[in-house]
Amino acid sequence: MVHEWALAEAIVKTVTSIALKKGIVRVRSVHVVLGELQSIDRDILKYAINELKKGTVMEDAEVFFEEEKAEFKCLNCNHKWGLNSVRELVNPDIKESIHFVPEVVHAFIKCPKCGSLDYEIVKGRGVWIKSITMSGEDRR
Question: Given this model, what pLDDT does residue 139 score?
């Protein structure tokens, strides 16, 4: 829960900072991408953003979330797979560890084709702002 509040704070600060630099008085919408490996609780994140955006240029903005599914590529056999193909290996304690440090996934999951631990995370980690819709330049 603390993790979601920290992310919400970073999102609100980033969006308001961009808006202020551009002289924008109103942010209409923000589109945020959540990597699957982060295991972000959307309800908590949305609530936190809604609380933190009060009194800012983001106050009336709609916030949209999109999940980017995790994708891995084995560097040994070139096999690509998603987290859903190894979901049974990810218990709640492991998922919590991955939530804070996605790179630890290597300690818990192997390539389902060859068993190698030598793979890269191609997609599905991190949280980022995909787009911001703004209106109303400040003409003071």
Answer: 40
Q: Rounded to whole angstroms, how far apart are CA atoms 140 and 134?
A: 17
- CA–CA separation, 29 and 56 (whole Å): 13
Distance in angstroms (rounded) separating the CA atoms of residues 60 and 56: 9
- What integer pLDDT is reported at residue 101 of this predicted model? 76
Average pLDDT, the chain: 88
Question: Quick check: 36 and 127 in contact, CB under 8 A?
Answer: no
| Phi and psi at residue 73, to the nearest 5° | -135, 120
What domains are there in the chain, each with its CATH number?
2-69+125-137 (3.30.2320.50), 71-123 (no CATH)
The separation between the first and the last C-alpha atoms of the chain, rounded to the nearest angstrom, is 40
